[in-house]
TrEMBL record:
Keywords: Signal, Transport. It comes from Lysinibacillus parviboronicapiens. PROSITE patterns: FE_B12_PBP. SUPFAM superfamilies: Helical backbone' metal receptor. This is ABC-type Fe3+-hydroxamate transport system substrate-binding protein. Residues 1-95 form the Fe/B12 periplasmic-binding domain. It is a lipid-anchor.
């Protein structure tokens, strides 16, 4: 899909072979990419009026996707394959709607 990871993500996660990193909210701009997939399940809630959140390019460009917990919490091989396909379709649909 020709997507590029932010430099910091490339270095600290992809090149390092890491699959997960917890960062504080204050440094989110250093890690945020052109698209954000947000999971607010299990009681999580994000203040979508917060200045830092609103300053992110993905938010400004309406490139935030909200993940349904019932679809994205299961972690078995069949569910993960379906999740990858769904995320891919989200991105394809977004690109198509921009044309």
């Amino acid at each position: 899909m020709q997507l590029q990871a932010p430099e910091r993500i490339q270095k600290e996660l992809i090149d390092a072979g890491e699959t997960y990193k917890q960062v504080s909210y204050e440094v989110l701009p250093e890690y945020a990419g052109d698209y954000i997939f947000l999971d607010e399940s299990k009681g999580a809630e994000l203040n979508k009026e917060d200045a830092l959140w609103l300053s992110l390019d993905a938010v400004k460009n309406n490139n935030v996707f909200y993940l349904a917990p019932d679809r994205f919490w299961p972690y078995d091989p069949i569910a993960v394959l379906a999740q990858v396909e769904e995320v891919t379709n989200m991105l394809i649909d977004k690109k198509a709607s921009e044309k």
